[in-house]
Design brief:
By secondary structure, the protein is an alpha+beta fold. It has four helices and seven strands, in the order H-H-E-E-E-E-E-H-E-E-H. It has a five-stranded mixed β-barrel with strand order 1-3-4-6-5. Strand 2 (97-98) and strand 3 (102-111) form a beta hairpin. Helix 1 runs antiparallel to helix 2.
Length: 225
């Protein structure tokens, strides 16, 4: 699907799905000549039967990949709320990564205006220069915490330099369909721990990272970058 200029339309996917069912029916209940003849090591029936199965599997793969591509691409931040202040709540879904003036983290959105993708990437900067922002100190953010924020979001984009890192594709692979930053004066921690399996794994990873930091505070190989 990544090599195609456009994705197959919904009508095309329905047609391909129907073709898969027909091929599967043909493979399972086709003419008797599909069945191998006794005592023959390799015959036309066996070859045709294998070919039908391979073709059916290929059609199913196309339908599966295209359907998920449509689903992922439809999960897009509406242009109407891009760059506007919006309020949302959710859970810190991964290890927060330190920035020069703040921290960045993945955020699973639980409640937000219509159209906000379910997973986003947020940055929280210390003392932004915006005149309408408080220069308040950065509150520590930890994996598995539930927060309420006012944020400004935008659609992901990266530099299109030849042979350079494709930041937009990297976000797409991780299911992150919007990025943005926190408005500091609106931040409120609602729960210190959200006990779900994925978040518990991230909490454990963060506790291990904290131990590395305590044992190797200034070492360049702590994996903190």
């Amino acid at each position: 699907m990544q090599q195609q200029p456009v994705l197959p339309s919904a009508v095309s996917l329905v047609g391909l799905g129907t073709a898969f069912l027909l091929l599967l029916t043909l493979w399972r209940w086709g003419p008797r000549w599909f069945a191998p003849s006794p005592g023959v090591a390799c015959n036309v029936g066996r070859i045709v039967r294998a070919g039908v199965w391979i073709l059916a599997a290929a059609v199913l793969g196309i339908v599966w990949a295209a359907s998920f591509a449509h689903l992922r691409l439809s999960d897009e931040l509406p242009a109407a709320i891009e760059g506007s202040d919006i309020q949302l709540g959710g859970v810190v879904a991964g290890l927060p990564q330190g920035l020069e003036r703040g921290v960045r983290f993945e955020f699973d959105v639980e409640n937000a205006p219509a159209g906000v993708p379910p997973r986003i990437s947020l940055a929280w900067y210390r003392g932004r220069d915006d005149a309408d922002d408080d220069a308040s100190p950065l509150i520590p953010v930890r994996a598995g915490e539930r927060w309420h924020f006012t944020v400004r979001l935008k659609r992901p984009h990266g530099n299109l330099n030849p042979h350079g890192f494709d930041y937009e594709a990297w976000l797409f692979e991780r299911g992150i369909r919007a990025t943005g930053y926190v408005r500091p004066r609106s931040a409120e921690r609602l729960d210190a721990r959200v006990w779900r399996p994925a978040y518990m794994v991230e909490m454990l990873r963060e506790s291990i990272r904290d131990r590395f930091r305590a044992a190797l505070p200034d070492a360049p190989y702590t994996g903190d970058s």
